[in-house]
Design brief:
single chain; 258 residues; alpha/beta; seven-stranded parallel sheet; 7 strands; 43% helix; 13% strand; globular
């Protein structure tokens, strides 16, 4: 999010617009500069119980005590006394057992309502699941867009098997050029729903059960466009058309990250 001047003000207004449009899942992280403070400014007048606020701890801070201290700092910046979900941003050198033990303690204390991970492949998730004492991994946040659909082969089925929601970030990454044949076909699909191509992309990426998308938007018009995707349910023929236009890999691939 923009951190200064008029761009920051517009970012705050965009977050407010999103909440008013019913998009209550607000995702941030301690590494995103002043984003947590911008969110604090944006949500201060809303009923906290109506929001689902998520932040992330950096791997470099993810020791047992470091995770607890990092959360306290995030809560202060966000102006709230709890998070709805707290994630490990990616797997680092600290043993997962330490981070997850801290998550379980924080959940028991009520400082977080749930916890999860980000940028974890199946092997990472297996290690994490083996570390749990009494909690559960609520979600795995991973890169997911039309170019990066490799998670559909093994990762999404694994997550669904273990009741782990999948949260896709950067859903508009690698948008096709507006002059390309693929974009023109995408636009034709959108026209059948009186929608925009971006709305169709969001509808496609969230077509699977317990699979969500978190598109960044720092302008109110983008937020309104994103919100409009929530009511679109693609017909099977259009899902198949999207599959042909933007095919998933036919073999397992390494987890894509940015």
């Amino acid at each position: 999010m923009p951190e200064k001047g008029d761009a920051r003000r517009k970012a705050v207004e965009a977050i407010k617009e999103g909440v008013e449009q019913g998009m209550a899942h607000i995702d941030t992280a301690e590494m995103y500069g002043e984003a947590e403070e911008i969110i604090r400014e944006a949500i201060k007048d809303f009923n906290r119980a109506d929001l689902f606020v998520v932040s992330k701890v950096l791997p470099s801070n993810a020791s047992y005590t470091g995770t607890i201290e990092a959360l306290d700092k995030s809560l202060k910046r966000l102006g709230t006394d709890y998070l709805d979900c707290y994630l490990l941003h990616w797997r680092g050198n600290t043993p997962l057992s330490e981070t997850l033990a801290a998550f379980e303690k924080l959940e028991e204390e009520g400082k977080i309502r749930s916890f999860g991970v980000s940028n974890f492949d199946v092997n990472d998730l297996n290690v994490a699941l083996a570390c749990l004492e009494k909690g559960k991994i609520a979600c795995n946040q991973v890169l997911y867009n039309l170019k990066n659909r490799g998670i559909e082969r093994s990762l999404i089925p694994f997550c669904h098997k273990h009741s782990i929601s999948v949260v896709g970030y950067t859903p508009f990454g690698s948008m096709p050029s507006e002059s390309s044949a693929a974009y023109k076909e995408l636009a034709a699909i959108a026209s059948r729903y009186d929608a925009t191509p971006r709305q169709i992309i969001l509808a496609f990426l969230t077509r699977l059960e317990d699979t969500f998308a978190i598109p960044k938007a720092s302008r109110s018009n983008h937020v309104a466009e994103n919100a409009g995707a929530g009511s679109i349910k693609l017909e099977q023929a259009d899902i198949e058309a999207m599959d042909r236009l933007f095919p998933a890999p036919d073999r397992d691939t390494p987890l894509a990250v940015i």
